[in-house]
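User: My advisor asked me to double-check a structure prediction for 2-(3-amino-3-carboxypropyl)histidine synthase subunit 2 before group meeting. I don't want to rely on an old file, so could you generate it fresh from this sequence?
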Amino acid sequence: QVALQFPDELLADAATVAARMEATTGAEMYVLGDTTYGSCCVDEVAAEHVGAEAVVHYGPACLSPCRKLPVLHIFGQQPLDVGRCTEVFRELYPDRQSRVVVLSDVVYAHAMGELEQQLCPEYPNIVFSKVLCGDTPGPALPGEVRQFGRQLPVEALGGLQDCAMFYVGAEGLALTSFMLTWNRCTFSSFNPATGHGRRETLNVNRALMRRLYLVERARDAQVVGILVGTLGVAGYLDVLQHLRELLRWAGKRSYTLAVGKPNPAKLANFLEVDIFVLVACAQNSLLDSSDFYRPVVTPYELELACNPAREWTGNYLTDFRDLLPGACAHVELPPAVPAAEAVPDVSLITGEMRAAHLCDPPAPQLPPSTTLACRDQTQALAEISPAASFLESRSWRGLEQQLGKTPVSKAVQGRRGIAIAYEDEGREQS
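Assistant: Sure, here is a fresh prediction for 2-(3-amino-3-carboxypropyl)histidine synthase subunit 2 from the sequence you gave:
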């Protein structure tokens, strides 16, 4: 039993592909349509519902490693004018000694070998990335970078710090993630659909300033909603536990929410939450929350806000697995500091004082008396639940049931018609 996962734009061909694969392999095929989260991720949950033993993923992919099922990626082969791409590269990099790393969208990976044959004789310091599907065995070799499902042998270039990046593909989340992660490199791109190249004018520093503003918002937050944006990427359960522990030590309350694809209407239902953190793949974690009622940050931004041991170094992390214990970017939590010894700081947004220390959240205090006592249920919930506290502060709390207070009566026929002209309403004589 094999699950075939198609993005929305390829669903029209799903039935034909499934029929041919069943006739060829003899295996039972199931077509996965609308995925719970981003279509670039493998939907292992939907595949397990039908008892699939493997998944064939079609279309663009973020190449995040999966937890359980073996996956075969079919990227597709979008057309690429290699000659035109070579001309654009020469125009953007007239110096033949330029140190350039060539990246591409997965749908153009099939043409990178031909492009390499055209450029390597002219540019001795050019490096082409290779696509990696899943985790490769063993750690990365010295001078080798493995990130975003790509392998970059940059030892001959002396590292990525002084290299330029040339991206083959359209503008999108993948390019944005590359530019934020390698923000010290200059980027240029070639769009195969239009045949034009350009130096990327996206102000990365301005984008980073926006993200650092969200870090300050996360420092002010008291209630944090952890959004589960993936159920298939390896390590998502570990990072959920890591974020809960981080928030607990920072003295903040947290809720874990599984709402599928987040949108402003869904998240507006949780008014008591001050800020959300999205656990998703590297491409979908950079959510533009300008239209949301509450901002949405990444796990790295939340750790910048809550872990004093982690300092901003200029390197932005979009893969949440880099934060887990054992990863190269993991930073241990410092020991707890008593509240009396903590050094308070001032919020840059509200101007109010806040405690900048790690401590255990206060436990709910039980009544000193050991005898049975009648307690207000709302007050008891408010001591342990920020949602109940928020509900207690609101003037309107929903419709009251008034059980036992409403007299019993028979059902009667109500009004008929539309709101502007009910049948029992009198009409003015013209």
